[in-house]
Amino acid sequence: MFQEYDVIVVGAGHAGCEAAAAAANLGSKTLLVTMNMQTIAQMSCNPAMGGIAKGQIVREIDAMGGYSGIVTDLSMIQFRMLNRSKGPAMWSPRAQSDRMLFHLKWREMLENTPNLDFYQDMVKSLLVKDGKVFGVVTGLGHEIKAKSVVLTNGTFLNGIVHIGEKNFGGGRMAEKAATGITEQLVSLGFESDRLKTGTPPRIDGRSLDYSKMEEQPGDPEMTGFSYLKTEKPLKQRSCWITYTNQTVHDILKTGFDRSPMFAGRIDGVGPRYCPSIEDKINRFAERERHQLFIEPEGWNTVEIYVNGFSTSLPEETQYEALRNIAGFENVKIFRPGYAIEYDYFPPTQLNYSLETKLIQNLFFAGQINGTTGYEEAACQGLMAGINAHQKTMHKEEVVLKRSEAYIGVLIDDLISKGTQEPYRMFTSRAEFRTLLRQDNADLRLTELSYRLGLASQERMNAVIEKRSSVEKIKNILKEFAVTPEQINPFFESINSSVISEKQKIQKALLRPDVELHQLTEAVPELNAILTNYSAESLEQASIQVKYEVYIEKEKELVKRMSQLEELEIPETFDYKKIVSLGNEAREKLTRVKPRTLGQASRISGINPSDVQILMIFMGR
After folding, report:
1. Alpha carbons 417 and 426: distance in angstroms, whole number
2. How far is CA 427 from the centre of its chain?
3. What is the rounded average pLDDT of the residues 461-480?
4. CATH match for 566-617 among 3.30.559.70, 1.10.150.570, 3.40.50.300, 3.40.50.140
5. Is 0.85 surpassed by the pTM of this model?
6. Class of CATH domain 202-336
7. For residue 620, what pLDDT is reported?
């Protein structure tokens, strides 16, 4: 019934979809196994992609030839570029999506991907022999063989749903949990643990009074995520903002004694940076209110996602609290919020390729590694899919450095430091964020992906054209001079110092309060020269000119840091013999087995003196 596959991907969430697409597009015969074909790429939590640091990841996935950016552009109902008031390193795209359309577009793209088959069933165990995986066993008893397997089980491994004092097995509401895999992996020597996440109630939008809320419209220009020319919607839907209050908090507190989190019925640790509403009012008792974002779930539905009100309190407590929020006085609930507890495997058990250290050809991606968020899962899926293909075809693994991508930062953090709570990406986690901007992900990554055979010729041509245009614009800005008569009226209008002689426009652009679009409006002659260049190329050239000093500083820092990254540690290196290392350092280095001194230096608990000792013992 089944052929032998090159790659089997287990799970069709965001990680699984990207993994399957990457492996198949690279040429591997790929099978995507999911418990429910109707929930492919399901947005289990909020119907949105991107945000702070997460938007950068989506653009990196797109530059690498992944599908998340394209699907988001085709299904978005609102687009915003966050942090526009800050520097370009902080700009982060975010899109509100149509939940159902997002799923349909993902499925449509996967079904149109060559080399990709589908099968609906639960995978209950792996076929393993002599330390290698060679396939999977399904709930219906089928043995399907493959050269590599990628596990992207999300929150389904022994998942338990909690609502107040009620709990039942499930990977999501109304979907059964996956069993068998955790037990088998533990028997093979893997370490597992429990985490929790949660989701807010879904609301009937017809029951809300939006006149009592603040409207949050999208940006006038829908930039989108994909570097390809995707179709954007002609209109947008607004989101809305409202707030909790002391009455709401008092009502929520009445349910604390029946909260699974406070009553100790949940063992798993929840996400620190996306806490439940009960956790917020408990941890931040001094705050009189918390902001809530009222987000529509699509174009043609009245269903509303209450962002900021994640909860697992009893249903009646949720309802009473919601009714006391401004605009929610007559609220109707479609389904209550709930928490979900599930198994994960600490990611220090992985190599940088996301292949497990214990079992060859077995890869983990997504929440199984302790992360939270669609974007974090999707980028792991992309890299696991690429590396499963590479391993199958006996090719070199693909690893992105911390200086190359947020994806590299995320994977390095997971492998080197592990995580005891759901890991979420932030810009602050990246030490080279001036280099890792959302606007230049294509310039950073497309060439690598094109060499692999993942990014299309169309993408590569677009990058070549963009790079050429940016250099031409920078040369124009370097050579074009303006007279005091041309530019001083503009400088006066923004209270900036005037000039007394001709000045190159590049120098004017270096002023912190001046942007290129203002200069083209103020100087028609400059506008005439630049009018044929795309907004994207103009923005890129402007950023490179304005932030050249900072960009060069980071590049120099990357060079210095790369010296440690180039000092490889032999796999057989015995840390236990180095008595000058402390017990903690020996234990952590032995467990993680860092590949380079750079990775060793980033392991929690390893200090500079430990690195110096390692350098001495390695003859450096």
Report:
1. 16
2. 11
3. 97
4. 1.10.150.570
5. yes
6. mainly beta
7. 53
